Amino acid sequence: MAHALPALIKALRDPARYPHAAAPVELMETHGAWVLLAGEHAWKIKKPVRLPFMDFGTLALRRAACQAEVRLNRRFETADPASHLYLQALPIVGTADQPRWGTPGEDDNNAIEWAVHMRRFSEDLRLDHLCARGALKPEHLSSLAQRMAAFQAVAAVAAPDGPWGHANDVLAFARDNLTTLRSGLNDATDAAEIDQLSRWTESRFSQWAPLLTQRLCEGRVREGHGDLHLANLVLIGNEVVPFDGIEFNDALRWIDVASDMAFVWMDLLDHGQPGLANGLLSDWLDASGDTTAPDVVPFFAVYRALVRAKVAVIRSQQMGASVATSLSEARAYTALAQRIAQPPAPQLVITHGLSGSGKTWASSRWLQGETSGRAIRLRSDVERKRLHGLSATQASGSGLNTGLYSPQAHTDTYAHLQDRARHLLATGWSVLVDAAFLRRHERDAFAALANAVNCPFHILATEAPLAVLRERITARQARGADASEATVAVLEQQLGWLEPLSDAEREHCLP
Fold first, then answer.
1. Residue 275 covered by a domain
2. By C-alpha distance, which of 66, 116, 75 is closest to 225?
3. Domain endpoint, select from 70, 101, 120
4. pLDDT of the chain, 511 residues: tens digit per residue
5. Which sign, positive or negative, has the C-alpha torsion 12, 14, 17, 22?
6. Statement to judge: residues 361 and 329 lie in one domain
7. Could you give the CA distance from residue 256 to residue 216 in angstroms, rounded to a whole number?
8. Please, which residues have CB within 8 angstroms of residue 206's CB and are 6 or more apart in sequence?
9. Both 234 and 319 in a single domain?
10. Are 70 and 112 part of one and the same domain?
11. What is the per-residue DSSP string for 287-313?
12. Three-state DSSP state, 70
């Protein structure tokens, strides 16, 4: 590779050209950039390429792209300086054979090239690498879910009459994937599979186009990341930090927030981690309150899988590529798209237990272990607050049997949970409803729902000694920042409401 490198990149392989300890200088290369890894720093230089989706053909365009990359990716930083990966866009001055790092502002007009200066991080902590060695944990993805929900809540919003996020454009991108796949995967089996995915795409788009338009009008199309997959996420301390968001194509960045989340959800499925994928999505839905996202996530996930397949097909046609390896990868992604498009039959699971008995812990464990299909958890503590205009962890100030916890609010919450569960089951999602379900008629209503939609019904029952329940509730109140507002007084009242499971109900209990 070295003989084909431009003179500038060759020169920057010299550690002496860096203002800090940099020996040795490692070089990474992508289709759009050279990345020089020098000590604790990284320097990213755009290639002067012109592609249908990326134009770095002039110095002015590369400068703008470097500045945009810094601006856009800094949006994901936290107050912790360790999460600050993007330092600045730097001019390179001098000559290609004798380059020097310039000073922004002072040397802008003398630049021969531009670079993005980044703080280097350990590649071992990228989420794809963590996942490959079994070190990616539910708490990492819960961190990501909350970070993305908070980021999306304040990200710039696309105007309904603006250029981005229109339903027909979403369909055009999806069709483009399929066109490329038809040209590159053309044996009979491939053709049949692509035709099937094409019919599914057209059918689902026809079904969900009004919702995509509604979501645009509701502000769900925002200036997002655009390339949110495991290799563009890194664990720094206890936080998952996104990086390398798309700066080179506005249309690929101004997208429905569900499309960003669908990419990482799909990528977790591709890595054989459906439990982590469903946990991520459920936590993000709790944090964001985006109740219509599950309707469109499968559409976006199929699209994202087929983007990956298309890239593999394009790679197979490039000089020096392994055709067999690239086409095998493309076929793996089309197979994944098929699995997403045709999920297993859904099931309905409810919890049963007093406050503090571990329902949310047990439901999270079930969700992480559920590998047969896609699943979403609904928490009564979260949905109750959403019904009253509160965020998941916002304190309501309600007392015992008043406000959010009045008898009418209780009835409304269970009716809402049932409505949401019915809709999710109809769209192919398994549903786990995390609520107390202390009264038999509440459980019977959900059993009847499962029977009506002809899906399996299960109960996840949790128990603990009364002293332990009191201790857990007291500790949870002291910690704060939890959706549950149950107090020991609530527990005492629940003891009077509790109707134990019947023998018939116990037949539905999960081990």
1. yes
2. 75
3. 120
4. 444 799 999 999 999 999 887 789 999 988 889 999 999 999 999 999 998 889 999 999 999 999 999 999 999 998 888 889 999 999 999 999 999 999 999 999 999 999 999 999 999 999 999 999 999 999 999 999 999 999 999 999 999 999 999 999 999 999 999 999 999 998 899 999 999 999 999 999 999 999 999 999 999 999 999 999 999 999 998 899 999 999 999 999 999 999 999 999 999 999 999 999 999 999 999 999 999 999 999 999 999 999 999 989 988 887 666 888 999 999 999 999 999 999 999 999 999 999 889 898 999 999 988 777 799 999 999 999 898 888 877 776 666 777 777 889 899 999 999 999 999 999 999 999 999 999 999 999 999 999 999 999 999 999 999 999 888 888 887 776 666 767 788 888 888 889 999 999 999 999 8
5. positive
6. no
7. 7
8. none
9. yes
10. yes
11. HH--TTHHHHHHHHHHHHHHHHHHHHH
12. helix
Whole domain around residue 473: which residue ranges?
A: 348-506
Residue 456 located in a structural domain: yes
With 0-12 / 13-18 / 19 or more C-beta atoms within 10 angstroms meaning exposed / middle / buried, residue 308 is buried
Tracing tokens 């002067």 back to the chain, one arrives at 48
CA 121, 122, 127, 128 dihedral sign is positive
Strand, helix or coil for residue 57: coil
Q: How far is CA 488 from the centre of its chain?
A: 36
Strand, helix or coil at 136? coil
Name residue, tokens 């949790």. 462
- Which among 417, 427, 340 is positioned nearest to 380, based on CA atoms? 417
Closest CA to 106 of 120, 88, 123, 121: 88
- Shared domain for 179 and 216, answered yes or no, is yes
The dihedral region occupied by 291, where left means phi > 0, alpha psi between -120 and 50, and beta the remainder, is alpha
Return the residue matching tokens 């703008």: 64
Candidates 458, 457, 453, 445; CA nearest to 428 is 453
Q: Are 396 and 472 members of one domain?
A: yes
